[in-house]
Amino acid sequence: MSALLSLRRIGKSFGGLSALSDISFDVHPGEIVGVIGPNGAGKTTLFNVVTAVFPPTAGEVLFDGERIGGLPPHAITKRGVTRTFQNIRLFSAMTVEENVMVGRHCRTGAGVWGGVLRTQRERREEQGIRGKARELLDLVGLPGADRDRIAGSLPYGHQRRLEIARALAAEPRLLLLDEPVAGMNDAETQDVFRLIRRVQSLGVTILLIEHDMSLVMKACDRLVVFNFGRKIAEGAPAEIRDDPLVIEAYLGAGGGGADA
Amino acid sequence: MPLEWLNPYHLQVGSFVLINAILGASIYVTLSTGQLSLGNAGFMSIGAYAAALLSTHHQVPIPVGVLAGSLLAGAAGILVGIPALRLSGVYLAIATLGFGEVLRAVLINWESLTGGAVGIAAIPQMGRVILAWASDRGFSPGSLGLQRNQFISLTVFLILLLCTILTVAFFLRLSRSRVGRAYAAIRSDERAAEAAGIPITYYKVLAFSQGALLSGFAGALFAHSTSFVSPGDFTYHRAVEILVFAVFGGSEQILGPVFGAAFLTVLPEALRPISDYRYILYGILLVVMMVFRPQGVIDPALVRRLRRSGKGTPA
Fold this sequence. Notes:
The complex is a heterodimer. Chain A is of the alpha/beta class. Chain A contains 10 helices and 10 strands. Helices cover 38% and strands 23% of the residues of chain A. In chain A, the strands form 2 sheets. Chain A has a 6-stranded mixed beta sheet with strand order 6-7-8-3-9-10, sandwiched between helices. Chain A has a 4-stranded antiparallel beta sheet with strand order 2-1-4-5, covered by helices on one side. In chain A, a hairpin with a 2-residue loop joins strand 1 (5-14) and strand 2. Chain A is globular, with a radius of gyration of 19 Å. Chain A starts with a strand and ends in a 9-residue tail after the last helix. Chain B is mainly α. Chain B has one domain (8-235). Chain B contains 14 helices and no strands. The longest helix of chain B has 28 residues, at 148-175.
């Protein structure tokens, strides 16, 4: 099976500081792959390279067999890679529904005149956008009563779900989730876990950064472990759990192979 | 005389209110993608001079000249907007202010085309042109109970009113469309907007040039209302005045700068009886506003409240 996302010897340095070096791994269609590692290991930097927030200083990113390096972020979204952010980035003054509607941008086409003249085509398209937005809000479990609320006024957990709905609105084939359960309690974490599985069942491949080990072990088909900007391990959750290098990265040298 | 209140002075103040309202809308449009442009006085001068020159030197009909002036200003907006994209916030404001001043220096020094510091006089005035046209066909303002100069001022006012209403309606509709959502998303968070699939460069240049086009439109209407333009009409003071419309009225809704323009244009006129103190009062008002309502008079919360109370009252 050919890879959906293929990272080849990715390197990224800021000035003299190396944030990522020699990162290579593949993500196959339909998988949920977890990226784990201590803080500062380069996980979010990797997401930023894939979504072209900044270009890598070495190596290349292939999506569906094509190089996507050099494309602007919106073009990558249009190809089918969308993301959420570690520190939630909603359009906080817009309503919940509008946030998701913005996510439909690259799958729709009305321009200035369509919008001003309200052509029949434009009205049909708007209806479609609204319908899709509501469908996605239902999927992520945001109740209809919240649709017209200002996004910034939602409780924290709901903001995370809303961000996922917005990312799904662009019909991604690959969804990058950056710590989707950070700061959530156990019940909320379980909800998000179920949501991730639902999204996977819709045919979306998922790359997930997460610190919650129980979630990662349960949700992911495969894990990639980073430390100091390098990949130190890759494999099934059970293998990773027992990998001495990983244990050392998390517990420090000499920490012993106890019940990590 | 029953229509005495309809005097040319009131109508002229009204006309300036409307031209300023369009200028207020122009800064709103650029701001709606989070870009602060102080170049709108410059773009206004492009529209004004283009329309004035076309009608005085080339006998182009006024509507065609207004359209050409607006489009030329919009095209200049694209040229300025693309390099200006590298800047944001106060740096963009300063660069666009510089653009306006450079343009004014060109207007002053290119005497063979622009008439230099003296400017261009005897530009066909909309009201007079329409009156002449109607008189040729046997119409007399007296048949409406109006004097000639009343009719002229009223015609100008009504044309500007129509232009302002169309402008506001255009951008109200745009703000509730796919393009408007893209603008709002960019203003809120550029990084997130990009990630959501919005080509931000395209929309920022589009908004910038729409703002420039509107400024040019206001400038062209100004030229054909006053029949005289000079570089002195498009100074740094004008640029700041336009900014104040948005700051005072509120910049998150198009009605904010339009209201700001109307209020701040009428205020100095209304305060004429205390002429010596009126600009002191104007200044105090701005300071008080910034302290107690820095978001401007009209903000989204106010609009929501008005809409709700509007729905609440039985018909």
